[in-house]
Amino acid sequence: MLTINILTTFITIFTIIDPFGLVPIFISVTRHLNKRERQKVVFISSLIALPLLIFFLYFGKFLIHALGLSYESFYIAGGILLFLVALDMLFARPRGTKQDQEEETDSADVAVFPIAIPMLAGPGTIASVIMFASHAKNNFDYLAILGCLIVSIGFAALAMYFSDNLIKVLRKTGLNVIDRLMGMILAAMAVQFIINALQSLGIIA
Q1: Where are the transmembrane segments (predicted)?
Q2: Running DSSP on this structure, what letter comes out for residue 107?
Q3: What is the pLDDT of residues 180-190, one digit of tens each?
């Protein structure tokens, strides 16, 4: 029996991965590759990101215990991190560091970096996966989170694969509107994570 809110889990993970926001980034960093090479980037990046997120799904909370952290502190830190990701989406700020962007243009192997990490499996996604996993009480919960990961990565892979078509249909303005709407949703969820943690600590009623 499920004990987690699967809708909240899916919306959070899907919004952080942000398949539509990924499209212009993917086009930009793969502009020097031909169609077959771009398809290879989609396959490899998905194949790297999904197992990495699955690792944190099953072993992330053991890392928290090993580091002596409380779940509440992780929820607050995770909420702040997700809020920062949401701000980037709302104000259309490029994700990744200056070094990331330089490597995008210098390296042909963009599948691993920056597409798989940090675009698909970034700090925000990893933090959310660990947070949801900490609420999992049985195998059904873990399978539900795993399903959310697979579907979200699958959507991202499809968005990248058909990126040229999406740009033609939605145009950059349409993608930006979707990105900002998803940013607003993520910001609200991030604030709620922090409120829940503060309530758990008894700081607020």
Answers
A1: 6-29, 41-67, 73-91, 112-136, 142-162, 183-204
A2: -
A3: 898 899 899 89
The Cα-based distances of 148 to 12, 25, 151, 192 in angstroms read 9, 23, 5, 20
Identify the pLDDT of residue 103. Answer: 47
**What pTM was computed for the model?**
0.81
Rounded-to-integer distance, Cα 27 and Cα 16, Å: 19
Assess contact for 128 and 78: CB atoms under 8 A: yes
Longest dimension (CA), the chain: 57
Do the beta carbons of residue 22 and residue 159 sit within 8 Å?
Answer: yes
Domain extent listing, the chain: 6-200
Determine the residue type at 139.
N
What residues in the chain have per-residue pLDDT under 70? 94-108
